[in-house]
Amino acid sequence: MPDMSVSIVPGTEKRAKDSRFLSVRNLTKAFGAFLALKDIDLDIAEGEFVCFLGPSGCGKTTLLRAIAGLDRQTSGTIMLRGRDVSHAPPSARDFGIVFQSYALFPNLSVADNIGYGLVNEKRARPEIERRVAELLALVGLPEQASKYPAQLSGGQQQRVALARALATSPGLLLLDEPLSALDARVRLRLREEIRSLQRRLGVTTIMVTHDQEEALSMAERIVVMNHGVIEQVGTPEEVYAWPQTAFVADFVGRMTFLSGVMSEGGIVDIGSHPLRVQSANLPPGATVEVGLRPEAVRLVAALGGENRLAMRIEALEYLGSFVRATLAVRAGSPLTLLADIPFNRMQDQPLKPGDHVVAHLPAEALRLFPARTGG
């Protein structure tokens, strides 16, 4: 299991954990013979915003539900502020939760939905009214108190669900795919609002998402999961720029993978094309994959120097601020890669399919991984 406290960026120091708010140790969850979570270890500091990121079925929601006590783990411990809550009921775990489906009571007004938890705690009516008014202002819905959920848009309903989760001032806020049911524009606006609100309140927050852009833009740290294990934990920059595994490199952002064999002196032979890599941590003769982000490819004027390939543009895809080119080596090689070309560069020097270019693959941008088995 990767040590989440160790920075993977060369030359950086270990990430200090000043205040361990949540600790998960050796957590396993089995559904019959199927292991949904396999020996999970994780620490989250007080006030952090952490995203659990991964594809469907990777275990991220199962881990969130285990932390909440909604779906008990098979084995392992969960410590909250130094207290063992491994077998505590959800009501004893001090969290608020927001679901993808909002889960609002359709027969209650917005105000009553938000105040529901406070009523259950038998708070005084004036206190409940004050708190509901505060929260409505906080989420930007001060005029919606008397409306019912069906009268609100999806984005407004999710704001109400967020206000309800925060009503009892929980120590932990859990967000289970809270934006996935919304359209793109509303999703973008709400993720900015949620992050701003979390910073203001300082509440420790865990969000489950399969959307890499959400995780990269919102989280202080990202927990990348796959098949019930943690592949990597790190800041958005660490996970994107220094992926520890080929899975992380492939799942977070776009990555071209080139298969090759490790040679001497930090050289990888990609067919007849030798490429120098900066971090050559695999032995000569090892079958490897070299990963490269499309934005790292540089189109240069001429051959000459290391890691330069004569290539042909096979296709161009317009993506707004940049154009994604598919490049192939001219001499009948199967070597292909993606290159992102800034739109202003395309305006200054138009390119089209069939044009010949020289691609520079900077050694410092190449990431080296052991070859994956089973495809």
Topology:
Elements: E1 20-31, E2 34-45, E3 49-53, H1 60-68, E4 75-80, E5 83-84, E6 95-98, H2 110-114, H3 116-120, H4 125-138, H5 154-166, E7 172-176, H6 184-201, E8 204-209, H7 212-218, E9 221-226, E10 229-234, H8 236-241, H9 246-251, E11 256-262, E12 267-270, E13 273-276, E14 287-292, E15 298-300, E16 308-318, E17 322-329, E18 336-342, H10 343-348, E19 356-360, E20 367-370
Parallel strand pairs: 3-8, 3-9, 6-7, 7-8
Antiparallel strand pairs: 1-2, 1-4, 4-5, 9-10, 11-12, 11-14, 12-13, 14-20, 15-19, 16-17, 16-19, 17-18
Helix pairs in contact: 4-5
Give a brief description.
24% of the residues lie in helices and 33% in strands. With 375 residues, it is α+β, with helices and mostly antiparallel strands.
3D structure, described in words:
The chain is an alpha+beta fold. Helices cover 24% and strands 33% of the residues. It is built from ten helices and 20 strands. It has helices at residues 60-68, 110-114, 116-120, 125-138, 154-166, 184-201, 212-218, 236-241, 246-251, 343-348, and strands spanning 20-31, 34-45, 49-53, 75-80, 83-84, 95-98, 172-176, 204-209, 221-226, 229-234, 256-262, 267-270, 273-276, 287-292, 298-300, 308-318, 322-329, 336-342, 356-360, 367-370. The strands form four sheets. The protein has a six-stranded mixed β-sheet, with helices on both faces. It has a five-stranded antiparallel β-sheet with strand order 13-12-11-14-20. β12 (267-270) and β13 (273-276) form a beta hairpin. It is elongated. The two termini are 23 Å apart. Residues 1-18 have low confidence and may be disordered.
